[in-house]
Design a protein that fits this description.
This protein has 197 residues and is an alpha+beta fold. Helix content is 35%, strand content 25%. The chain has 6 helices and 8 strands; from the N terminus they run αααββββαβαβββα. Strands 1, 2, 3, 4, 5, 6, 7 and 8 form an 8-stranded antiparallel β-sheet that branches. The chain is globular. The chain starts with a helix and ends with a helix.
Length: 197
Amino acid sequence: MKIRYVTALALGSLLVLTGCAAQAPQRPADPDGATDAVAASEGDATFGASALASITSCDQVADAVAPFIENLVPMEDNAVDEWGVTCSWEAAEDETDFANNRSVEVGIAPNESGTPMPDPSLVTAMDGGALIEDAWVSDNDGVAFSLTMGTAVAGVTATTVWFPGFQANITGGTWGDYPALDGHAAIQIVKTLLPKP
């Protein structure tokens, strides 16, 4: 089985599980709290929109994931537009080196105002599922979690990094000694592409 198919399976599993597990947003108990919550939500939405606007092409994304896409080629349907960022790389059609039987996908899209934080508990309860602890993510009201599938030689990790203003889904396959695009590496990519002021 090619790594890109395992990549799609891991990402699909992650999205289905977290989509089904989303919690309803918590409303503040007092009017002052409600005002603060609305202001915070608007600020997060502004951050998401302005941060996404700073990404203008998949070449820019390629720079952030450079160690993980070595010897891979960009897919023809890569796009950065008003819907967000969709950038993927995979093995060339004529590739014969098993070490290059990998793929990397970066998808980033804005969240609508009031979108609830996903509940990662269904993912973390699975073999290979993990909550990624990161101070930058938690300090900015976000959550990050990943699902890893594979063998000792080949594997794939799908990571979601969620903030009130946007969500990033980053998936990477690895083979042998190539660097693994694990949860912590995915968070670093988000920090590079979408630094919060």
